[in-house]
Amino acid sequence: MDSGLDHASQDPYTIQAVGDLNLRANAAAALLDIASVAIDLALANPTAETVAQAQIATAEAKVLSTEIAILATNKLFELAGTRSTLAEHNLDRHWRNARTHTLHDPVRWKYAILGNYYLNGVNPPFHAWS
Question: How many structural domains comprise the chain?
C-alpha cells in the first residue's frame, strides 16, 4: 500500500522474491534430473559405487526441493499479505501439503549423509528410502 505502485508485480521486493524462488526451483529441478540419471545408472549396473552415487544425488535433490517447497509456500503468505491467510482462500493447504511431503524421510538426516560422504568418503546407509 505504501509503495506508491499500481501493481504488486512492480514492487522491487516482490520482483526479487519471485526471481529468487524461480532460481531455487530451477536448481531443484536440475538436481532431480541429475538424480534420475544416477538412479537409472544404478539400476542398470548396481554396484556399491553407483548405488551410493544415486543415493547422494537423490539426497541433494531431496534437500533442495524441500527447502524451495517450504520457502515458496511461506513466501506466498508474505507476498500476498494478511488476507491471504483467510480460510475462504484455502491457501494454507499449499504450505500444509508441502510440509507433509517434506517430513517423510527427513532432510535433517540428509545433511549428515552428504557431509559424511563428501568429507569422509562414507557411503550412505543402505535403506529402501535412500
Answer: 1
